[in-house]
Amino acid sequence: MNNIVKNIAIWLIVALVLMTVFNQFGVKKAAETQVVYSQFIDEVKQGRIAKVTIDGRVLRGETRDGKPFNTYAPSDPWLVSDLLKNGVIVAAKPDEEPSLLMNIFVSWFPMLLLIGVWVFFMRQMQGGGKGGAFSFGKSKARLLDENNNQIPFADLVRRIADMEEIFFNTACVFNKTVPLIPVKMFHTAF
After folding, report:
1. Which positions ≥6 away from 48 have C-beta within 8 Å?
2. Does residue 62 lie in a domain region?
3. Model pLDDT, residue 133
4. By residue range, what is the domain housing residue 52?
5. Residue from 5, 12, 2, 1 nearest 113 by CA
6. Does 101 map to a domain?
7. 59 close to 51: Cβ distance less than 8 angstroms
């Protein structure tokens, strides 16, 4: 049960990171047309602009035809007065500042994720899992001496004799199944 929860948590973290990366670097379709600032001022003076929302230096708005647009405004102290003079509805948004908690999360999350992955792999290598990553190199050999020998010499001789008999019988069966090499061919090959 514990391994299942751990695997699900790892896959959820991987999916979350991938979604964040794709959302961050994904292509965003712009429904608004980008307008040069001088063209924007000309359209304001001609009365083609209906409303404008000022978001910092970014100006978003609608023409009288209902088409959305956006532009970037340089520091123009007379911008708002020119817009109001030409009958444009002006709205302003305050600058959005991310919360302190979000700043901490965005700046520390990648580092904490790397540390977590590093700790996970270190625990696996030290044998935290079943056997660990390098458990294949652990020797299971035991040191035997004269006092701790559990197999008597007579049994050892009998086992060796049995192994020789098995080997001899196998060799005889093998020789019966392999066709004999002609002697003449044998002499010419060597």
Report:
1. 63, 64, 65
2. yes
3. 52
4. 33-93
5. 12
6. no
7. no
| pLDDT at 100 > cutoff 90 | no
- Let me know if residue 74 belongs to a domain: yes
Q: Is the pLDDT of residue 186 over 50?
A: no
What CATH number does the domain containing 62 carry?
Answer: 3.30.720.210
Output Rg (C-alpha) for the chain, integer angstroms: 41
Separation CA 45–CA 54 (nearest Å): 18
DSSP β-ladder status, 89-93 and 33-34 = unpaired
User: How many structural domains does the chain have?
Assistant: 1
Q: How far apart are CA 166 and CA 172, in angstroms?
A: 10
DSSP string, the chain: -HHHHHHHHHHHHHHHHHHHHHHHHSPPP--SEE--HHHHHHHHHHT-EEEEEEETTEEEEEETT--EEEEE--S-TTHHHHHHHTT-EEEEEPPP---HHHHHHHHHHHHHHHHHHHHHHHHHHTT-SSS-TTGGG--------STT--S-HHHHHHHHHHHHHHHHHHHHHHHHHSPPPPHHHHHHH-
Nearest-angstrom CA–CA distance, 114 and 78: 50
Q: Tokens for 36? A: 């040069």
Helices (H), 47-99: 79-85
Q: What is the mean pLDDT of residues 163-169?
A: 78
Q: Is residue 77, in this structure, part of any structural domain at all? A: yes
Residue 4, pLDDT > 90, answer no
